[in-house]
Amino acid sequence: MRTTNTHGGLASALLAGALLAGCGDNPDPARPDPKPAYLAQIRRTDYGLPHISASDERGLGYGVGYAYAEDNFCLLADTLLTVNGERSKYFGAQASYDVGGEDAPNLPSDLYYKLINEPALVQASWERQTAEMQALVQGYVAGVNRYLREVGGANLPAACKGQPWVREIKALDLVRLMRHFAMIEDAPVLMPGLFQTVPPTATSAAAANAAPASLTLRRTLQVEASRSRKAHLGSNGVALGKDATESGAGLLLANPHFPWTGAARFYQLHLTIPGKLDVMGASLSGLPVVHIGFNKDLAWTHTVTESRHSTRYLIQLDAQDPMRYQIDGQPRSLSSKEISIEARNAGGGIDIIKRRIYASEQGPIVAWDRQSAVALRSANLDNDRMLQQWWAMDQAKSLEELQGALERIVGTPWVQTIAADKPGRALYANITPVPAVSAAKLAACVPAEFRAEAAQGQLVLNGNQSNCAWDEHADAVHKGIMPGAQLPSLLRNDYVQNSNDSAWMSHATQRLTGYPAIVSREAVPLSGRTRIGLQQIAARLQGSDGLGGQRFNAELLQRIAFSNRSSSATHLLTGLRSACEGVGMQSTSSGAMVDLGKACTVLQAWDGKAELTSIGWPLYEVWLNIMQASEQDFWAIPFDSADPVHTPRGLRVADAEVRALAQRALADAMQWLDGQGLDYRKPWGELQVAQRGAKRIPMHGGGSDDIYNYIVSRPIGDGQSDTIYGSSIVLTVSFDGQTPKAQGFLSYSQSSNPASPHYGDQTERFSAKQWISWPFSEAAIAADPKLTSKTLSE
Question: In Å, how far from its chain's centre is CA 457?
């Protein structure tokens, strides 16, 4: 095992340089050292950005694993503990852990991961990986384990120092992690459903008091719809082509909205295999590929798609035996398996907790009563094509090649792709593993009581009929999903965009229509972020934004990313101010009295934004959330599918009922903010922060779905809120020179270790909107004054 530390150096000289560095260790220079199994060079530039070079996949993975462990070893170890279903073993069954700012209880989590990552499924996923991907993963594992051996468990960062759950990792650990990422969309349903579901024959209180399966299902779907409306997982993406840019070359904005903590943190990196790969961007924790980024020919990003990747099946049970049901009149029995979970008890010993999981032919049971059961079938449970998909994208040399890889592999689990290339074209591709459920099947198989949910793309099918199973297409990459070539895509010379709405309005005038609701809904209201994006793109291209008809360059695209303007406020604020006029004391929903005049004074002066200097945003945000939760129609001009970008708009204050609702909602907002200790009369930058050690860095952006720079924060009890979710990567890439020009941020910074110098350095630049150049070319890397280099071999 050898390590050399130098400054500078070229990737093409990597192999020769590393072998020469090791010659002094060879007792017989006449006999050269054998070629090492793993060989990589890690150069770091400012902000801890690793540029990793190797001659093959094993070496590249080795360098990625080592570099990532240097920055985030404790995060990786904790995540692998989770995906192995072992949190109860070390922390107890009743404890919980953080998942992107939310608490997840250990026992349901362990049960879920023991099911989706049972050994046979994980082994099969590993065996289906290509030789390249296996080599990449094996190298990554070796790199992480080398770091652990060098540092030692007693010298790790505080979060995992000396912990009994820290161990060397294995290749199958990364397969479990990959399966975790694939199933993120279904986990919020499966995790509690598997844990809470008990057989209807049981005498437990849970069974006696259980709600009917159909009612439980409806509540679940309502919660999911609510989470979707609030853009719990989301992103913005804009790709501009030659008809929209100054240079005539492509231009991209990437802006995924993800948790700032946990496994879904991104990691910035630059990967090179000379002659084969040269790609820069960011990856999800523990995966040695670039998920969002660019190479010399094109740049791409992803946004969370509205397409659905699972369906529920409502199954009527046998009246005499709830463990049995019928398909086409033929009897079937529910299958079951027992899962054992080790749980640490109060005395420090280990208890074995056993749970039985039941399933129909369609999938695991997540709800049931004496008459019916609900099963869930997910297209992503066997989607082990993720690494192969992004590896192909990382090497693509054209948008046609990128689109072809998406259609051939169909491996991006729940994100669509927005891309731009050097010649100046823009691509939108909503190609993900969507169940093959045709319009005819929808008409025949959705129970009458769930047709409203079906219109929203949330499909519940009849589980007692074989013709309600997913269709099978001969040209689909996996049984039961739609062929990639039949899913929405659009290639243009001006622009495409998406902010988590359906494929329908990814371009203002060329609308994508004719798809089943499970793929893309049509003629539905757009989110505020989508409306802002389309409005600002149109204003720029039409020359109506006051900038003299100038086409887009990177700076103008960056203005959209950080506009921090509330879309809904442009439509509602005038009416809300009108509703405030002459109002003094106002009753809240709880009956308390507040002086509404204080809030009205703030709103009269508010600039309609969530900037650091804005005063009034949190008051408006809470008011808007209360208005939306009321489910009362308060718009003056309703939604019009012929003009979705500009409707709905206006507050219907002439309606006494709406005016009273607006006033009461404002009073409730005041009361809630007062209860949280948040003084809405202060500038937003004094209220919303990012805690980085002893520092509290002011944060712009807002958590409602109509702020393009989507940032969610949680009150921390001392008059401030800490950021937990939102803009994670903010990146622009232009192709108006010899090499791509990339500027942006990893908003929460590169390392999750509070002792690292890269724990908050980019966060401060993000706060100040001081865009950071990402060095891609050899000249830019060599010119970085903070460049260091390390060559590793083993």
Answer: 20
Whole-angstrom CA distances from 511 to 234, 254, 489, 490, 689 are 21, 22, 11, 9, 39
Phi, psi of 339 (to 5 degrees): -115, 130
Q: What are the pLDDT digits (tens) for 59-69?
A: 999 999 999 99
Contact 641, 523 (CB under 8 A): yes
DSSP characters for 264-290? T-EEEEEEEETTTEEEEEEEETT--S-
Query: Cα separation of 287 and 291, whole Å?
Result: 9
Q: What residues form DSSP beta bridges with 490?
A: 428
Rounded Cα–Cα distance for residues 132 and 58 (Å): 8
Residues 6+ away with beta carbon under 8 Å from 381:
116, 121, 179, 182, 183, 186
Tens digits of residue pLDDT in 147-156 = 999 999 999 9
Q: Where are the alpha helices (DSSP H) in 396-527?
A: 399-409, 439-445, 451-455
- Which DSSP string corresponds to 490-518? EEESSEEEESSS-GGGSSSSS------TT
**Count of Cβ atoms closer than 10 Å to residue 6 Cβ:** 14
Four-residue CA torsion sign, 139, 748, 152, 9: positive
Could you give the C-alpha distances from 220 to 152, 208, 445, 447, in angstroms and in order? Answer: 45, 20, 20, 16
For the ranges 73-87, 130-144, 446-460, 472-486, the lowest mean pLDDT is seen at 446-460
CA distance 648 to 666: 21
Q: What are phi and psi of 207, to 5 degrees?
A: -70, -40
SS (H, E, C) 97-140: EEECCEEEEHHHHHHHHHHHCCHHHHHHHHHCCCHHHHHHHHHH
**What share of the chain in percent tops pLDDT 90?**
80
Q: Which of 395, 441, 397 is nearest to 423 (CA)?
A: 397
pTM metric for this prediction: 0.93
Task: Give the Cα separation of 269 and 26 in Å (integer).
Answer: 33
| Whole-angstrom distance, CA of residue 574 vs CA of residue 775 | 45
What single-letter amino acid sits at 493? N
Residue type, 730: V
Q: Which residues are catalytic?
A: 235
Instruction: Read off the tokens for 7.
Output: 């400054």
Predicted pLDDT of residue 439 = 86
Residue 272 to residue 284: CA distance in whole angstroms: 18
More confident residue, 451 or 560: 560
The predicted structure's pLDDT at residue 210: 57
Question: Can you tell me the distance from the alpha carbon of 59 to that of 793, in angstroms, rounded to the nearest whole number?
Answer: 8
